Structure prediction request, 374 residues.
Amino acid sequence: MTGLGDLGRASDSSIESERMILVTGGCGFIGSNFILDWLATHTEPVVNVDLLTYAANPETLASVSVDKRYAFERADICDTAAMKAIFAKYLPRAVIHFAAESHVDRSIHGPMDFVRTNVLGTGSLLEAARAHWKSLGDDAAAQFRFVHVSTDEVFGTLGANDPKFSEHSRYEPNSPYSASKAGSDHLARAYFHTYGMPVMVTNCSNNYGPRQFPEKLIPLMIVNAIAGKPLPIYGDGMQIRDWLYVSDHCSAIRRVLESGAPGELYLIGGDAEMPNRDVVHTICSLLAKHRPGTDYTKQITHVTDRPGHDRRYAIDFSKIERELGWRPSENFATGIEKTVLWYLQNAEWVAHVQSGEYKTWIEKNYKERSATPA
Ligand code: NAD
Ligand code: DAU
Prediction:
């Protein structure tokens, strides 16, 4: 565990031992949006535990790094001793666990990083959380919560006419990423059933919105389009994803934290199923509206498909709607326009994350895919 100097306060005794939450992976896409939303709407402090891998961008949290309610610990969730020390220092009343290796294509190139972080890391974090939970008095232990953030990809793939995924869907992961997330979900479930620890699991669809690392479909297409680069659609582009605006995902997690039942699974979706081709064409139209003068669709190319590519994901989120009163507030048209505008207005953020490592990854992932113009 190491401090982060000017990127955030590694330790501030003034917030230790107050009622607070612990977030892992808070310098990534969803975690950073969650922390910014949390500090804007709650008084309760938050400690962010992040290893700062390639996917992290501490600059995203620069605005809160001087906030007295925010603390940062650079640490690896696989390091159980470091995790135990952090729990002992901050005594969190809840954990929101985002930290993971999250990109499917990277898991195809290097599955063991995913096994390590997602399976071993979640196991190690659960162990540290259990030691902390066991040390609490009866009331505090009963109120303690561990929210494990997972993905719809653990349920595999759907045919065009199959019913949507629900809390009753079978686990059928198809990629090293989704298999490692499935492993972490099973560990989380086991800590509830074996030890009675108040764990809840959320499985959501594809998030999009501000501050997403441009290796994923939507930000990659936006930044490539602006830079005049090819827009590489895998295969026929008719794979369907359900798109969830990131602030809606964050509000759903807050509902689960506040009122979810321990031991339960909650599926979270955006009510926005769409083929990838349509997503890319929508981005091209919005860029033509807000940055006119270019026909961005001319940059679209079809490239060799992803191995084992899941065809369709869709989410039935009626359980969280019925039991916790949550539903998404953005539709895809409003969410994607906000997203495109954010990337247009934050060119500096984009330039900073396109480091040497980013260039190496883009080269590795796309160089061997043959391309044909759309
Ligand atoms: P991300 O890749 O943007 O960020 C992951 C963060 O975790 C980074 O800040 C990274 O530094 C940190 N991290 C990685 N390994 C770590 C380790 N060993 N110890 C400590 N920190 C570590 O991920 P994201 O897109 O924000 O996803 C967050 C979570 O939500 C993940 O668990 C992911 O599986 C899940 N999820 C994501 C989506 C999506 O569309 N992005 C959808 C469903 C579920
Ligand atoms: O469903 C939830 C999951 O969504 C999360 O668990 C993952 O962490 C997240 O990365 C995301 O996984 P996907 O594989 O669906 O997202 P990605 O943005 O990588 O790809 C979305 C779709 O776009 C998918 O069908 C593959 C396709 N694609 C992706 C890229 C990067 C392309 O056609 N071209 C590309 O260059």
Remarks:
- Residues 1-9 have pLDDT under 50 and may be disordered.
